[in-house]
Amino acid sequence: MTKGKVVIKTEEEIELIRHSSRIACEAIAEVAKVIRPGYTGIEADKLADTYIKDHGGLPSFKGYGHPAFPASLCISINEAVVHGIPTHTPFREGDLVSLDCGAYLNGFHGDVAYTLVLGEVPEAVMKLCVVTKRSLYLGIEQSRQGNRLGDIGFAIQQYVEKENGFGVVRELVGHGVGKQLHEPPDVSNYGKRGNGLVLQENMVFAIEPMVNLGTRQIRTLSDYWTVVSKDNKPSAHYEHTVAVRKTGGETLTDHTVIEEAIKNNKELSEISLKI
């Protein structure tokens, strides 16, 4: 849980966050251009790390936390929900590969995640990706001045669990984004309508539904980082950094950069382009 006061951003600060967010999106897009069966997480991580640094930034995740996260990308495969550490194990046909990336530039962070689908997967997994991504945008729609944090969580949970029967992870949440990678407020993917902190214009936070095909329960592996579904069924993860506005959330991250790369890579399914 992030503690402290919620920082309301200026328009100038929001533009700096948008810039950092763009670099993070483009780093994932670089991986989406080339990922294929046989490619490895280590190769993907090196590509993203180089891209961020070549564009004047620093990877937000590398060295973060205790123990320090060892990579620039979180690469979470299949049953891994989040915080997967890149390895030399080759990706395989049918893998879900969730890429989470943060970039730090000009004093501010940007944070984004996208689940890539390598080739053909079962219909239930296809639906998992579509529903998870759609739930993200339902949360963003609720990110308007005067609403409450519970309205975001309620919209996501209602759609994912009540309407589609998947499991929303409770223990992991979205978060404020700014000079720190994780700032107040925590942004849960479940909740009650009308509850929680009142949203103010120019709050900036990451919304990131983490949705499991089966149980919502999770466990952490012995590497202290990788979180997996307790029943080892697949999980999907999508994330935008969002600014609260009068009429709804404004995305500062740009998934279209990633989606163009997906369209041009014949090894990737276009399932997750649908919302």
Strand content: 15-25%
Tell me the number of helical segments per DSSP (H or I, 4 or more residues long): 5
Mean pLDDT rating? 97
Approximate shape: globular
Radius of gyration, in Å, reads 17 Å
Notes on the protein architecture:
This protein is of the alpha+beta class and 275 residues long. It is 29% helix and 23% strand. It contains 5 helices and 15 strands. β14 and β15 (250-251) form a beta hairpin. The two termini are 30 Å apart. The relative contact order is 0.20. The model has no long low-confidence stretch (mean pLDDT 97).
In terms of topology, how is this protein built?
Blueprint: H1 11-34, H2 41-54, E1 58-59, E2 73-77, E3 80-82, E4 96-105, E5 108-117, H3 123-141, H4 149-162, E6 167-168, E7 174-176, E8 183-187, E9 204-207, E10 210-212, E11 218-220, E12 227-229, E13 235-237, E14 240-243, E15 250-251, H5 255-263
Antiparallel strand pairs: 1-4, 2-4, 3-12, 4-5, 6-10, 7-8, 7-9, 9-14, 10-13, 11-12, 14-15
Helix pairs in contact: 1-2, 1-5, 3-4
Brief digest:
The chain is an alpha+beta fold and 275 residues long.
Keywords:
alpha+beta; 275 residues; single chain; Creatine Amidinohydrolase; 5 helices; globular
